[in-house]
Design a protein that fits this description.
The protein is an alpha/beta fold. The mean pLDDT is 89.
Length: 513
């Protein structure tokens, strides 16, 4: 049912589009009530407006903290027009009802995002009257429409001009309103817990960014949601071509993009099912891609390619020879874009670097696991961490050190149990997600084949027994990097010395489940 709008209460912090919107309301015969800076902006545009104080008979007080918190205002918003007793109360108190409430809130989120904001400044931006008006109107949306964003001005103004807002629109606006106040309160809760790594209460306001083609399987519906106030790299990314992204595409691309970002200068990662099918650092991006793809071409089929430098035409042409789902990089040359155009189904994405500022969250039944994001396994462009400890009799060579550092980075991005065999700063064998560490080593060796001779290996967690080291040594691995910390570390070190292997402890585990 369409309900006409005769009277509107407007109080907005964000004045975007305000004057034009109010002008259309006034032209449609709507009486506008407002206060403070909103009323001043309306008057400055030579539009008629009634002051809230003239309606309530009470002046603004406490520096503007109290102005709309009055029965005359809230009675006009909350009255059920279908109940005779409500109408009697309005008449007895001389209250004129509202059919439209337009409110957006003090910019609390923007204020606390600024560097150096004081607690007093943050608290002053906690809106009280605004959320109260919004919730009142949203509760009574059968009779009152509520608008909380300038994005809705056009649709609402058009509806007013056409005779009124229908039930569907008023209900949608009410849904948005309750989400807005919930998200606002969540931001305040988050600010109060700002210095706690794992707060007692975690409220996450999420809003749908896009529907996805499907979930992990075609019969599952799926969507991607951003945290209010800012999404990740994917929310700022630009897709130049290709089909819409699916659940699996996002999961794999996230893994590829994070690995590429940790690899240092001119690195390429190839990811399949969130694990590395290949990774390499080279002097040019085309060389890096060729080396990364060569690790395991069978596993790479249908995967995601991520480069941490611009992709040029030779690289685009090389990638286009294979079936890949997604290619992501910080930029693409014009010639590269033209080359990918011959493969219109390939998703080509430009994205900013990923960050580690958010919590890593995972669902369990009726609950959530939360942890801090793992720190970078090695600072980009570094080839060694001086905090690492050489525990073997033999020290690693300079070439082994650079390969060990590279393999350690890749292993940190590979599902546990993980073993990564590398040579020449390129992965040549990856054993991922195995239930045993020796099993992961055997899988990595099998994939590497003869390339394991003279190569190095990384393990994302300690070796619980010497069998993993023995298996790597038998395949020709000359140096191993691992966290250490096993009760049998002495046996593992002894095994490395027996095989004349260099063994390095990083003293940090990188399990990835």
């Amino acid at each position: 049912m369409n309900r006409p709008v005769k009277r509107a209460l407007i109080s907005v912090s964000d004045k975007t589009g305000l004057v034009e919107f109010v002008g259309r309301l006034v032209a449609a015969g709507v009486e506008v009530v407002s206060s403070g800076g909103t009323a001043a902006a309306i008057r400055a545009a030579d539009l008629p407006v009634i002051a809230v104080a003239d309606v309530t008979g009470a002046p603004e007080m406490l520096g503007g903290r109290v102005k709309t918190l009055h029965p005359t205002i809230h009675g006009g918003i909350l009255a059920d027009h279908g109940k005779p007793d409500h109408q009697d109360d309005l008449r007895d108190q001389g209250i004129v009802p509202f059919e439209l409430v337009v409110v957006n809130l003090y910019p609390f989120e923007a204020t606390v995002a600024k560097a150096g904001v004081t607690p007093a400044e943050a608290i002053e931006k906690i809106d009280i009257g605004g959320p109260t008006l919004i919730r009142a109107a949203a509760k009574n949306h059968k009779w009152v429409a509520v608008v909380t964003s300038p994005d809705d001005y056009e649709e609402v103004a058009a509806a007013v001009e056409a005779g009124g807002l229908d039930d569907r629109l008023r209900e949608r606006l009410a849904q948005s309103a309750f989400y807005r106040t919930a998200a606002y309160d969540a931001a305040i809760v988050g600010w109060f817990h700002r210095n706690e790594a794992m707060p007692d209460r975690l409220v996450l306001p999420l809003e749908k960014a896009a529907d996805l083609r499907y979930g992990e399987n075609p019969d599952q519906e799926a969507a991607i949601y951003r945290r209010r106030g800012g999404g990740g790299w994917w929310d700022q990314a630009q897709q130049l071509q290709g089909k819409a992204m699916s659940f699996n595409n996002y999961a794999d691309t996230e893994g590829a993009w994070r690995l590429a970002g940790d690899m240092g200068t001119c690195g390429v990662a190839v990811i399949k099912h969130t694990n590395a099918a290949g990774a390499a650092i080279r002097a040019t991006v085309s060389e890096a891609f060729a080396a990364a793809w060569a690790c395991d071409p069978l596993a790479a089929f249908g995967g995601v390619v991520a480069a941490n430098v611009e992709i040029d035409e030779p690289t685009a042409e090389a990638i286009s020879e294979y079936f890949v789902e997604v290619v992501i990089a910080p930029s693409f040359s014009d010639e590269a874009i033209a080359a990918f155009a011959t493969k219109p189904n390939v998703r080509v994405i430009i994205a900013p670097a990923s960050q580690r500022s958010d919590l890593d969250l995972r669902r369990v039944e009726n609950g959530m696991l939360a942890q801090e994001r793992e720190p970078q396994p090695l600072a980009p462009d570094e080839r060694w961490d001086e905090a690492w400890t050489v525990v073997s009799a033999r020290k690693p060579s300079a070439e082994e050190k650079s390969d060990l550092a590279f393999s350690w980075v890749v292993s940190a991005h590979t599902k546990s149990n993980a073993i990564v065999v590398a040579a020449n700063e390129a992965a040549v064998g990856v054993g991922a997600g195995d239930q045993s560490r020796v099993g992961a080593a055997q899988r990595a060796i099998a994939k590497a084949g003869d390339r394991s001779v003279g190569a190095v290996a990384a393990s994302d967690a300690f070796f619980p027994f010497r069998d993993g080291v023995d298996a790597l040594a038998a395949a020709g691995i000359t140096a191993v990097i691992e966290p250490g910390g096993s009760m049998r570390d002495d046996e593992v070190i002894a095994a490395a010395d027996e095989h004349d292997m260099a063994l390095i402890f990083t003293n940090r585990r990188y399990f990835k489940h």
